[in-house]
Amino acid sequence: MTKGRGEQLTRHHKIPKSRGGGDEPSNIKIVKARIHRAWHTLFQNSDKTNMTPIEALEQVKEWAVPDLSSLGVYLPTKKRHAWNLVFGENTTPAKAIKIITKEWS
């Protein structure tokens, strides 16, 4: 799926199909393919299943310092790059939580 000037777009299932999510419009978010890949780089469970939005919120909270003002853990380069693509460079966990809640849930 492409739109406009050749930026590849793809469908993201808010509740992953592998976790029972369907193809109904309310469960689909159209995103740039590189952002979609970045989301799944950040939010994949240890068993390689994709996280639900609630699990992604919990993951951000686990990575953050208690007041959510910064990350309290080191994110490897690949995950840090994915964070910057999905949320923007220097985005606090508090802001990331708002983005997930508003745009990805």
Overview of the structural elements:
- The protein is built from four helices and three strands; from the N terminus they run βββαααα.
- By secondary structure, it is an alpha+beta fold.
- It has one domain.
- A three-stranded antiparallel sheet has the order 1-2-3.
- 14% of the residues are buried.
- The mean pLDDT is 93.
Which class best fits the helix and strand makeup? alpha+beta
Largest sheet: 3 strands, antiparallel
Number of strands: 3
Could you give the distance between the termini?
22 Å
Low-pLDDT segments, ≥5 res: none
- Percent of sequence in beta strands: 5-15%
Please name the defining characteristics of this protein:
105 residues; 3-stranded antiparallel beta sheet; 4 helices; alpha+beta; 3 strands
Task: Describe the secondary-structure layout.
Elements: E1 2-3, E2 7-13, E3 28-32, H1 33-42, H2 53-63, H3 77-87, H4 93-104
Antiparallel strand pairs: 1-2, 2-3
Helix pairs in contact: 1-3, 2-4
